[in-house]
Amino acid sequence: MSAPSFSSFPPSFSSFPDLDTGPSTPSLAQPTKKGSRDKDKRERRKGKSKDKKRSPGSTTDTLDCNSENSRYIEHDTSSASNITSRFYYSDRKGDLYNIQYGGLHAGDIPKYHIIDRGRYILGLTRSWSVKRRSGKGIEVGPTDRRKLRSLTDSYARALLLAPPTRRVLQYEDTYKHPEVDGFLRLPSSRPQGITSESYRSITASKDGANSDSDASDASDAASNDESSSDEIILTSYQEKLKNVEEAIADEPGSTDNWLQLLSHTLSTIPLSSKNATKARSEITVSIIARAFAADIRNGFSKALRIQYLRAGEEVWAGSKVRAEWEEALKIGGVEIWMEWLEWRIRHAAKGVDGVVEDIIRMFGVLGQSEQDELAKVRAFWRVAVVFQRAGYVERATALFQAQAELLFEIPQVLHGQPHETQLEHLENFWESEVPRIGEAGSCGWAAWVSGDHEDISSKKQDTMQIIDLDPYRQWAARESRMDEFDTLPSRSSDDTNDPYSTILFSDIRPLLMPLTSSVAKKAFRQAWLCFAGLHIPGFSLTLSSSSEIDWDDRWNLGYLTRRPFIDAFFPSKTDQTQSRSESIVGVIVGREKQYADPLGPIKCWGSGVVGPLDAIRMSEKGKMKAATWGSEDVQGLDHDFIRRLLAQLRLGAADEDWDILTLAFEAAVNVKTALKHSRSLLFQNESLIHWAAHAHLETIRGRMDDARKIYQTVLTASSATSLQGMSCLWWDWAHMEWITGNSGQALQIVLRSAGVEGHSGVAVLRCKRGLDDAIKGEAKWKHREQWIKLRALLEILTGRDVSSALQVFDDHLNGECKEGPCRESLLVACLLTIYQYGVVLKNSMAPSVLRQRVELAMEEYPSNSVILGLLLEGERGQGVWGRVRGMLGESGPKTKGVARRVQEVWIAGWEKGRWSGEVERTRRGLAGAVDSERTRGSYIIWRIYIELEIRTGELQHAKKLLFRAIGECPLVKDLYLLAFGPLRSVFSGKELSGIADTMAERGLRLRAGLDEGLAGWKGGLEEGTDSESGSDEIVDDARELRRLMPY
Predict the structure, then answer these.
(1) Which of 191, 373, 692, 819 falls 20 to 30 Å from 206 in CA-CA distance?
(2) pTM of the full predicted structure?
């Protein structure tokens, strides 16, 4: 810096005032008293002594300046209190160097820093300081208070995930103070007297002979304490691991022990940890390989083999995976073949055609037994779902139609003929294009052969127009709409340009199978209903021989992805932001808590646990509601098509189970229509089952008097108690009277059911003996269960206590119903009886009676929606939400299925206004579900997880999930269409074109190409789609980099 020129300055400085060369004075007045001056001197001397001890590199807590501090600042020495509260000083002295040289040197300019590194704020006292600075805001808190870490901090998360380092041991001595002569001496602050010491000294001198032995005992005890302290204390995890290893050493061929070891070892690796999938797979492969080497019987275990192969897919090469699957197929078994089929579908290199080849291979291995035919129905249902999800809905429907014609409408002359001969004649019927089963005017194959048939059926066209300004969204909406609406195959006479809508017989012939058993034929009918969207709870479990290995819920719960159900899982925006309190005249008043229906939209239980027309009453003022199907279950379905299925697949007047399903469907649509249909069925067959169904419909409608007339008329006319279905009528009547508050009438009905008249004690004893005999003499389980419930109800009506009724249920649960569907059915009946006794009827009962039994039942059957509803009802109005939260996420000893995972999503919004606080918990649960071996391959879980992110506005995260989803489920068209619809804003045109190309490469059915949907649109260049005049990839990348600068 060059020296300034002074030629321009005049020789005289008389215009400037005289400057005082003295020190700058502080802005506050100084005290004048002598005592204060003496105090200032002491403070000044004290400060000097402190400055000598201070290190040269230390800085003050007030203002930091350059080397010219003495010219600008003089600390206030008025008092200690003023020093702590002084934040600024005034400098009234001019700068001589500025006048002398015409400017300041860079080193002379004062440099100011934030007080105490920004901890204190000008204007606030020292008792408040800055705790955290983030962005444009700061967090201020008390100075002397330590900041607590939140649960979202990395330190807190690491601390929660860390294993325990100490163990709380339980000592035998449970008392803090020693026991003396059978009493506990209370502690006292008063000093002990000399009496006790002299007493001890006397006894010590008197027993001097034993002093040596006492000393040796004390030394032994000390040595024992030292040795016990040197022992390694095992944690609870290590102790359990040790016990499992000992059990395996005793019995190396036990599959349960190895599975327990595997589950216990995997519990140390949470699904949310980094690289958890690969780590868990490596551990699984290592442990199961050790099991195979330990005992040859473990190699034939289907449960171990399936988990071994599923884990190997993540760590092995493709060739090794194929070799291991081929080795497993030699063992055989339906479960292994079904898992092999799932593996082929996940890695479908040939698309849908490759899946057809795999099904044909599986059909060639299965035999003609009843269990093998059920396995064929199971595989048949699976391939139909593949067709449906890949977009070939007409082919899936045609497959069911042809198989139904072969099973139920075969001509009489073809009975007993070879299967190939029957297929040749069926091909002639198919090519005639007459109405088939499920279509209007269908008369069947047999009627066509006899010459009684209708004209050629024409396909109903969808006239709904979808208009959207964005052509990508419009194209996706049109594809989804046509896949949902155009389910029936078209004819050659129909005006259509889609070659996949017309199904030739050669397209479905290899998949048609011969079924001879009545059980398999009835299972096929129910499978078609489930495929059409009418879910039957517990049906899929009847097709599998083992419920532990049955993972079919990954694909057979597709109805959960329909729009009405997705809207039911997530609350509306008004329910999400509902305030829990409001102000009335200045007073804060808490809102009444509102809850959804505890049964929820998901219906999941074992086969036969709850009947299709069984009604459940969940509140004191509520109505009887059908448990299986409601209006929300049939919303969006083709009612006419399902009615035609139910009518055309009926096997005669004695097909009572099928008639009950028909009435349940009609009741879900309209109860009045169901009653009309029930009267027509009663006109054909007046069986007790049909009368009981008609009474159920009257109960659901709310007309108890009409139902009571039916019971009185039918049971009076049928005096015999041994008739099939009689127990159902007696129980339904007694239960209806009891639940409506007519306990006296209910008791009289229970006595009449056993053929006993009167109300005396002897009559009650005779009734108990009669009901016990009826329970032992009933062969069919469902009818025997009604007698058991009557027996328990008798205990409630006569004893006015629920404990005796629970003893009746416990005797059968611990006896004949230790396992199987009968145990789940009776357990649900027991819980419903307790709930209706204590909650609905408001009888005196401890809440723990129901809560404890429900919690135990929930551990045994974690996916049962009725048990879950009772658990939620037990927590209604309770301040502790932890019991419900404890069920969510990865808690529980059993692996959670698809139904349970979706139930947890719905539970988060069960109480209105709480869903926003449970979003993160729900997200963690779904994140664990898509990483779990049990539910990773379920497109249902992926669809709901993506919907959660869409509803919460996390579209970028939803985009990442979508790419993972189409990798795990490559043949699900609905997942691809999400990129064109709800996620359109985060996908560019180039990315959407690439996704459309991927769909075509994987063999998914596109009713119209994406190019056709974009024809004539001018906005393609703005979205970065490929065109002749569009920019190349380098220019696009450069534009994106400029947009992201400077980040």
Answers:
(1) 191
(2) 0.77
